[in-house]
Amino acid sequence: MEIINTIGRRKTSVARIYMQAGKGEISVNNRTIETYFPFDLHQIVVKQPLALVGEDGAYDIKINVDGGGIKGQAEAARMAIARALCEINEEHRGALKKEGFLTRDSRMVERKKPGRRKARRKFQFSKR
């Protein structure tokens, strides 16, 4: 099996992954997944597509993430892994799409507007 290269995005995070057959080792930015994502919740989010299709421990995955925060990076990696699993076996597409792993979550932080304190927060009104 050749190396499969896919990309996933969430908020301002971008995750590029390289997946190949192996023993189930996952590295994120040249570190183990346990050291890069110290919280169990983020590790579970990254491994969700593999667990859903029953391919846990079947592939070695090298993830490069950039931008955003920890949660956005974990969800971007989840999307990239789901896309790679669809490239490997098209039968996985239905289950992954039903869980929403193939859909790009396009919600972003709203920009700050000029003349305001935050994106929507206005200055306190004074009658006199």
UniProtKB/TrEMBL annotation:
<dbReference type="InterPro" id="IPR020568">
    <property type="entry name" value="Ribosomal_Su5_D2-typ_SF"/>
</dbReference>
<feature type="compositionally biased region" description="Basic residues">
    <location>
        <begin position="113"/>
        <end position="128"/>
    </location>
</feature>
<protein>
    <recommendedName>
        <fullName>Small ribosomal subunit protein uS9</fullName>
    </recommendedName>
</protein>
<dbReference type="InterPro" id="IPR014721">
    <property type="entry name" value="Ribsml_uS5_D2-typ_fold_subgr"/>
</dbReference>
<feature type="region of interest" description="Disordered">
    <location>
        <begin position="106"/>
        <end position="128"/>
    </location>
</feature>
<dbReference type="InterPro" id="IPR023035">
    <property type="entry name" value="Ribosomal_uS9_bac/plastid"/>
</dbReference>
<dbReference type="Pfam" id="PF00380">
    <property type="entry name" value="Ribosomal_S9"/>
</dbReference>
<dbReference type="InterPro" id="IPR000754">
    <property type="entry name" value="Ribosomal_uS9"/>
</dbReference>
<dbReference type="InterPro" id="IPR020574">
    <property type="entry name" value="Ribosomal_uS9_CS"/>
</dbReference>
<comment type="similarity">
    <text>Belongs to the universal ribosomal protein uS9 family.</text>
</comment>
<keyword id="KW-0689">Ribosomal protein</keyword>
<dbReference type="GO" id="GO:0005840">
    <property type="term" value="C:ribosome"/>
</dbReference>
<keyword id="KW-0687">Ribonucleoprotein</keyword>
